[in-house]
Write the structure tokens for this entry.
Amino acid sequence: SADKNFYAIKESTGTMLWMYAATAPITAGAAVYSATSLSFGDQSGTMYLVTTSGKALYVMARGLNGKPVIGVSNVQGNTFVETASGLVAMIRIVNTGFVAWSQQTGSTLSTSPTIVDGTVYIGSADGGLYAFTPQGANPLAKPRGITVTITNAWRCTTTP
């Protein structure tokens, strides 16, 4: 939230279960990391891995050089992070907390990723659709036959 806290809310009652204090505002959602933990990032580029009871497992301070985090997803034990500036990175957050790889897209990002069969797909303001595997495969910008328009929701159309 804007007050620099991550809140866990009980869905049935709306009551707060716990909160975790971050170092900067949190403007992106969290992603489930395992059955007992989740990951999220804040506007300073700090990444967090916390238990489902709000205890810190790992904090990676400014791991993305201060770039604000706008999206987080977890695939096959790897954490994919998106920043507003168009940077996409894969972080091995447990025990190491290092950036395994990062790639810059052609423009800014403002959407959450979509995950299909372990590959993360991200739309960019440059009109490109980028695909990343946990191994850091090169992005597939504007695959043949697909036009991506980023509006309030994803819209993909095929072209002849």
About this structure: The CA atoms of residues 11 and 34 lie 19 Å apart. Confidence is low (pLDDT under 50) at residues 141-160. The first strand starts at residue 5 and ends at 9.
